[in-house]
Design a protein that fits this description.
The chain is mainly α. The protein has 15 helices and 6 strands.
Length: 394
């Protein structure tokens, strides 16, 4: 049986494995082929098993591998963001609230603001991995087996950290799919925000970045155009992730225990959202690494006196004025056009010396820390799921 299964693994890898019309699913196809190869013992393969617990196992194995790949994708993107942030740690640019110029930050600080939520997304994915890391095989159709199955041995061979604790729940639980789908949605939302910033920065009205040919397309009509297609697609594809999560939640709500055929319909949105998220992360990493910032245009933008109104108010506070009085006084000056701050973005940034603030030294330090975290995530992805003896032999 062991030799026959190894041969089937090779046939699957080489694309020579035939699935017949009479095969109900991959499990019955494998059993049928094994019986062809080992007529005497092939029928033993399904002992103590049901397609219900086999499907639950397959989904958990798939989710673990998919999560590892997605975490690796986040590691690559955060690395690209941190490298660009470190390079541009002291390049002043306007920061915005309500899409209105507010205060001066740096390009590096802004890029790291996109890295932080992605690091949180990696933790969400790792949580989804933990939720998928239970071994359901041995639960049978819904009530386990009268045979003395060595569930612990199988879990160890497949690299699972623990066993499912209720056979009814084990064959019907798809919560770990929702955890993964939500993590994918969170990634998509954050990539959409990154894409929106790049779209704005690349417009003539902002002019903060120049789009390399690798991350833009031309117009079929207007020869001067460079369109930020990757950034726009990052925005648009977030809708797919939301659709997948909503679809899966609607399938799962209200199902009776234990297995129901409805659960089969969770696979398509799961595969779709994983594929979409992986492609988007790869595209975003290319986008970020190819961005070229226009330093002159950025300097022009931070010459706006309004960016330093808060600095003026805080200087009054440092001299002993209550903040509300200082705020009112500077507001009056701005309205009357008499506000004349010292337009020195570098000096403004150097005074912002708090943890998480945009002082260039702080930005460089955080950029290096994010690079380290990206390396740790890549290492985690390499180790999870663990490579079992059976996988290595296959």
């Amino acid at each position: 049986m062991d030799a026959g299964l190894v041969k089937i693994i090779r046939e699957l890898a080489e694309g020579t494995f035939d699935i017949l019309g009479s095969d109900e699913d991959i499990h019955s196809a494998v059993e049928r082929r094994l019986t062809e190869l080992v007529p005497k013992d092939g029928g033993r393969l399904h002992t103590g098993r049901s397609r219900n617990d086999q499907v639950a196992l397959d989904l958990r194995l798939y989710c673990r591998g998919a999560i590892s790949n997605l975490v690796r994708g986040i590691a690559e993107l955060t690395k690209a963001l941190a490298e660009q942030a470190t390079t541009h740690a002291n390049w002043p640019m306007p920061g915005y609230t309500h899409l209105q110029r507010a205060q001066t930050v740096t390009v590096g600080h802004h890029l790291l603001a996109h890295a932080e939520p992605l690091l949180r997304d990696a933790r969400r994915l790792q949580f989804a991995y933990e939720m998928a890391d239970e071994m359901p095989l041995g639960s049978g159709a819904l009530a386990g087996s009268t045979l003395k199955l060595a569930r612990e041995v199988v879990a160890e061979e497949l690299g699972f950290s623990r066993l499912t604790q209720n056979s009814l729940d084990a064959v019907s639980d798809r919560d770990f799919l929702l955890d993964l789908a939500y993590a994918c949605l969170s990634v998509a939302i954050h990539l959409s925000r990154l894409g929106e910033d790049v779209v704005l920065w690349a417009s003539a009205e902002f002019g903060f970045v120049q789009l390399a040919d690798e991350i833009s397309t031309g117009s079929s009509l207007m020869p001067q155009k460079k369109n930020p297609d990757i950034a726009e697609l990052l925005r648009g594809r977030s809708g797919r992730a939301l659709g997948s999560l909503t679809s899966m939640a609607m399938i799962l709500k209200g199902l009776p225990l234990a297995y129901d055929r409805d659960l089969q319909e969770t696979k398509e949105p799961l595969l779709s959202t994983v594929r979409n998220t992986g492609e988007s992360l790869s595209a975003a990493a290319i986008l970020v690494s190819r961005l070229v910032f226009d330093r002159d245009r950025l300097r022009e933008a931070v010459a706006d006196p309004g960016l330093y109104a808060t600095d003026t108010a805080e200087r009054m506070v440092a001299e002993g004025r209550p903040f509300r009085q200082a705020h009112e006084e500077v507001g009056r000056q701005v309205r009357e056009g008499t506000h004349m701050p010292v337009l020195d973005p570098d000096a403004s940034l150097s005074e912002r010396d708090l943890v998480g603030a945009p002082k260039p030294e702080r930005v460089r330090s955080r950029g290096q820390a994010v690079l380290t975290q990206a390396s740790v995530l890549a290492g985690w992805a390499d180790l999870n799921p663990p490579r079992t003896d059976n996988a290595a032999r296959g």
